[in-house]
Amino acid sequence: MNTSNNTTRLATFERVESQVRSYSRSFPKMFDRAVGATIFDDKGRAYTDFLAGCSSLNYGHNQPDLKAALIDYISADGIAHGLDMFTRAKEKFLASFERHILTPRGLDYQVQFTGPTGANAVEAALKLARKATGRDNVIAFTNGFHGVTLGALAATGNGKHRQGAATPLSGVTRAAFDGYYGPDVNTADMLERQLSDPSSGMDAPAAILVETVQGEGGLNAASAEWLRQIEAIARRHGALFIIDDIQAGCGRTGGFFSFDGMGLTPDIVTMAKSLSGMGLPLAVTLIKPEYDTWKPAEHNGTFRGNNHAFITAAAALETFWADGGFEAEVARKAAYLSERLEAIADAHGLRTKGRGMMQGVETQGGEQAQAICKLCFDKGLIIEASGSFDEVVKILAPLTISQKQLAAGLDIVDAAFGAVLGSQLAAAE
Amino acid sequence: MNTSNNTTRLATFERVESQVRSYSRSFPKMFDRAVGATIFDDKGRAYTDFLAGCSSLNYGHNQPDLKAALIDYISADGIAHGLDMFTRAKEKFLASFERHILTPRGLDYQVQFTGPTGANAVEAALKLARKATGRDNVIAFTNGFHGVTLGALAATGNGKHRQGAATPLSGVTRAAFDGYYGPDVNTADMLERQLSDPSSGMDAPAAILVETVQGEGGLNAASAEWLRQIEAIARRHGALFIIDDIQAGCGRTGGFFSFDGMGLTPDIVTMAKSLSGMGLPLAVTLIKPEYDTWKPAEHNGTFRGNNHAFITAAAALETFWADGGFEAEVARKAAYLSERLEAIADAHGLRTKGRGMMQGVETQGGEQAQAICKLCFDKGLIIEASGSFDEVVKILAPLTISQKQLAAGLDIVDAAFGAVLGSQLAAAE
Amino acid sequence: MNTSNNTTRLATFERVESQVRSYSRSFPKMFDRAVGATIFDDKGRAYTDFLAGCSSLNYGHNQPDLKAALIDYISADGIAHGLDMFTRAKEKFLASFERHILTPRGLDYQVQFTGPTGANAVEAALKLARKATGRDNVIAFTNGFHGVTLGALAATGNGKHRQGAATPLSGVTRAAFDGYYGPDVNTADMLERQLSDPSSGMDAPAAILVETVQGEGGLNAASAEWLRQIEAIARRHGALFIIDDIQAGCGRTGGFFSFDGMGLTPDIVTMAKSLSGMGLPLAVTLIKPEYDTWKPAEHNGTFRGNNHAFITAAAALETFWADGGFEAEVARKAAYLSERLEAIADAHGLRTKGRGMMQGVETQGGEQAQAICKLCFDKGLIIEASGSFDEVVKILAPLTISQKQLAAGLDIVDAAFGAVLGSQLAAAE
Amino acid sequence: MNTSNNTTRLATFERVESQVRSYSRSFPKMFDRAVGATIFDDKGRAYTDFLAGCSSLNYGHNQPDLKAALIDYISADGIAHGLDMFTRAKEKFLASFERHILTPRGLDYQVQFTGPTGANAVEAALKLARKATGRDNVIAFTNGFHGVTLGALAATGNGKHRQGAATPLSGVTRAAFDGYYGPDVNTADMLERQLSDPSSGMDAPAAILVETVQGEGGLNAASAEWLRQIEAIARRHGALFIIDDIQAGCGRTGGFFSFDGMGLTPDIVTMAKSLSGMGLPLAVTLIKPEYDTWKPAEHNGTFRGNNHAFITAAAALETFWADGGFEAEVARKAAYLSERLEAIADAHGLRTKGRGMMQGVETQGGEQAQAICKLCFDKGLIIEASGSFDEVVKILAPLTISQKQLAAGLDIVDAAFGAVLGSQLAAAE
């Protein structure tokens, strides 16, 4: 390894990297290696990773099966970049995806490899919905996050990102997510009211775009019943029903799809983040055959054939989704996580949010949550907050984390809540 | 390797992959391995690659130094996915980029790692320009190609891609590229006329966005003089001057930047394609410090920390750009390429287009060019056409191709022109 | 008069006038003269006018004082068309408006003469709000109607008109009007919730644009309390508070402004319809001095100096608003109207809607309301329906109508309800 | 008349009228009466009107036949405001328009009465074109002026007005007007080039919208040949050909339509300004029957039935267009105007611009033109400048002006040019 000291090496970033950098401000260390749920800085210090690449590392860092498959592939001069040509690696991924994911669920989606970012998958989905319906308006939800390229950004709720466009965003109408106006207001009924009223000012929609659990939005989890109502509204009003499963999919909430078992059949599903299994850039748009009306290359992109990612993605499907074992394991961990977070929340009069391995505790505000996350980092835990005011301390541990490491990490979280809320109590007294 | 026959395996694509697939229609083989300028199908047949991932594989497939560096990195459990945290791999890339690219050219760009697609880098560039100027209008050029996400797509000229949006594209005004109205019309003067006329209807621009050679647009190469005039117009009217160097950069036209030696200092440069050196998804936006006004994470994306790509990109810089040897080699090959293409063009009363290792021959139309490309493929050469009517047969060979393989590939091209234009002559007689 | 028969003369319209014509389909007679609340067809048949030019004829047809003032003016060769030059007629109007309207209310609005349509006044108001705030987003309400030019149309809720644009409408976010989700949901609280949430996806607004009573929207009357809450929300979030008083103003709901006495001080008020008093095209935008940041002619229009309208408008102010007599008279008639409509509504299990002389009865649907209006017309009463489904039979009688004629007109309405709902009962049995 | 002094009365405007006022700054007098080409201020001073309401008073102020018809109509309690109901006044106008304008020219336009502003007619035209074609993009020209409501403003070239929107304008692509790049560049060929190139970035147009003479744009007159080429381009590319004849129509350039005798048959024509003949607000959109696809009231507006204007418009058609006398008279005056202006231009090395009674002299810049206009006003002549820099001194005299008054007015212009350019010469020496 390099012998230069930390200060010197971080200076490279100060000198050459754009001010847009963000996580490096919260976690100002030079990271180097990572295995499973552990990430090491260049001094060799180990950190437990409760961020997991914002749910891009559901199977942990450098998962051995995936790593081996990738090294084998590269060693054999497997194609790395394949545009959208037929390759062995892509065939492997598609066959695995069909066998382990689509067929068992009775789904016949066509798989589109978009540019390898979640935003790009969302852009493709919105284009298709507009093509299919001849309509412009897309309905997206309060606190939704769908990416920051201009088409996806119009659907994203976050004000900082929206202002970053520095140009008005159009083509999207906002509806209220499940529970947005409190538990007593059914926001799906409100949407139905507006769409049924020809003078409401809400134009007939091309699509309704929704996350089942809003990761960036603060771990807001929609109920299955509300989602079914939204799907029914989409059907009734001639709109495509699109689930953005980029953060909540790939096992994060339990099933491969976050909507498994809810009785939903979205017309389009967008996936990215943990799809490659190893954190490599990969995104797909899953499309019901009747809406797969693309002309060849109508939506394209240089890196839509990231074959390294196909290899690791196929390995992940074979390793984790060939039978129900992994799903059961995630369910057990999620139950444990719920239990621990509820205990923390109860101790401080707070509430938990989220679903599956995508849960957190809503603090009293962003400053409090930041203080907790900072304290955790000092103790060797990488964790962040989300929500409109960054007020929800969010646990996104690798799904493959050991029970022991999960418990230890949660101990740190527990202690940090105690320290911060305790000290605040003390300060208030 | 797999024993299933070709028909069965291609059937997976027919069954599961979206209709959007495109190159696989022109090259309907299952590809498998690739080394240098050669790509192999699963029957073991070798093809010379004159497409090179649309200029994403300037150093060839699986270049040994890059491949070795990547395998070493993965084997050592190097971080694959790092969000935008500080990592050893990123530091390595930034330090190499500063040392071999920026410093020798006296440039002080800040490097932003955007989502790892060229379109994403363009989206970031346009946001910054709008932020910096408080203006909305971006000037882009006829036949320009900048990606297909909504913000970038507004700047792209291609009608098929524009229609794919199925929604009006706004925020961009079109100007005529160098030579668009023939050699006698100075289109930069026309742009100046419009911008100087307060009632022309062309709103004051946030940016002028230009490619030095329009790869997708048909290998239209702008003169250095015209580009300098465009830069001067941008300065005079308070607009940022942005060069999209995604396809023409990384040595494709000779220098690392396609505008090396032209006396240009763009305010923002976008790069992707060959930047990672091995075809891995990576994109950056280079920003003059005074315009690097991003708030942390204002433009973000899950895969902006593709550390595998940092490793190969750094290796590529060390291998190819530490001294002038590679650049000289590319210049020699480019001269040879010019010579060969001019001979082909002259033989058929056609003309060559492009610059450096990004040249082609303009045929009489798309059908003719398709016939030529198809014939080449039958002979073991992968090549495509570009331009408004797909009328330009385009050579995008790896820059590292051997003289012998380059010559052999060009022999195939020469023969294909002869066969198609000869047979057409015959048919016409 | 012309000697050609009715059929021949209506044939001119069939032959030469566009299909866009509308009221002539409901009232297929050739009209000729009109006085007060009575309009005559060319056969000399008299109709009572409960439509009053959609509230453009609040003082009735050819009100004698206004008519005399106009004839005098024209006879003396008074300037008809004055662009925006200073004219005696404009001075007269401004002085009267200041004396009788602004000063007594302690208002210091600057008066902008926009193009002489309500839509044009709304367009001007939205431009100013965007200029003043540097923001793009305007909040408008469900069922609002603000005109059909592109800027105003974006704020209009009506689906038929929106689709007429045949292009996406942007720059406006929709909020729910008072009572939209029923009496138990405070929609102002909902708006506050969204604007206070930085990730709601509702961008910071330039303006909140509201009608106090939605005439076209179905006579939805906002409560003073709700309007004050909306005004407070606008102030809190840095938006201009704009009241569109085009249909509800000029005495229609009692006071000169529909918001008189509600404790509101909108930043901008738009007026048109009955402003000229005689149905002549005139529109103004009233602007708080601090927002009157127009450059000369920045918003212009050929007919912004309709001096005939200035003359009749000034005469209307002198005749009706110099003291409180007219306002008291309108209040008495409105009370009588309420009483009669409630009786009709009660008789059929329906409900009344609206406020002042802008009230109606909500039927069970558009077909029913059409049948009632048609029957009224057969009996010599001109009346129409409004609302999302044209389900509200709307009384917009001239405010100057005699008690006797008002009563007689309401007798016709009463009978029509009886006939239609009675016959429907009979049909249902 | 009022006895208050001028200062006091102008103070009303200072106190109450918006800063947007414009002409009153150039002509700071209180105007009162006007007859023919003469306008009087309240001191009784007579001014010759070479502005004519920006071509809204082609028949002069208070033309006796029109004035008499209007007084008769009002005296007889003729309907003033008729929404879009059938009225005797409207029938009279339509019948006259058909008899004297459409039938002699073999045109079968359907007449739509839009809101009574030119901008509103343009908005209607653009909606129809988008409906008819299902396309969004409208092509408009450099220096074009079509109004300032958001839809029309997008087509307007003037930067001050565009910035007034304070929001991006979309849906319009700009093309270069005839002669924009000098006499040697055929801008129609350039447009054809762009539309024939599928990658030019110019989307397939719904319409091409053009003025035959750009009044506000600086009296740029397109040649008949260029206009025919533009019409042919529209047909070839499936776009509607729309002529905005608002300023150049109604005899201003000679014929009733500015395109009379040019071999053009636009799909839609917009008219306003002088259509009512007396300066009253009136606008129409003339539509080929196959494009008159409006649903009833799809485009509406309260004042679309300005019956006073129908009466004066019908009278104007009967008085001026029943035979060819007026047209011949205008031709004679236009020839005289040309002769006089050429003499002025020649004397100062300048050039004339425009066509018919819509001509002017291009000075060396806006300041010079302002000085000339100011001097004229001091001498009793109302005149203004237009063009990108307000550099063209523009004569828009009433077409009915006497030869004597026209000559006297031109003497003032001549002297003003002499004084200003002479004094500048003196200053320069």
TrEMBL record, chains A, B, C, D:
Source species, domain of life: Bacteria
GO molecular function term, any single one: diaminobutyrate-2-oxoglutarate transaminase activity
EC identifiers of the protein: 2.6.1.76
EC top class, as a word: transferase
Cofactor: pyridoxal 5'-phosphate
Functional pathway: Amine and polyamine biosynthesis; ectoine biosynthesis; L-ectoine from L-aspartate 4-semialdehyde: step 1/3
InterPro entries noted in UniProt: Aminotrans_3 (IPR005814), Aminotrans_3_PPA_site (IPR049704), Dat (IPR004637), Ectoine_EctB (IPR012773), PyrdxlP-dep_Trfase (IPR015424), PyrdxlP-dep_Trfase_major (IPR015421), PyrdxlP-dep_Trfase_small (IPR015422)
Keyword tags: Aminotransferase, Pyridoxal phosphate, Transferase
Family per similarity comment: Belongs to the class-III pyridoxal-phosphate-dependent aminotransferase family.
Protein name per the record: Diaminobutyrate--2-oxoglutarate transaminase
Source organism of this protein record: Rhizobium halophytocola
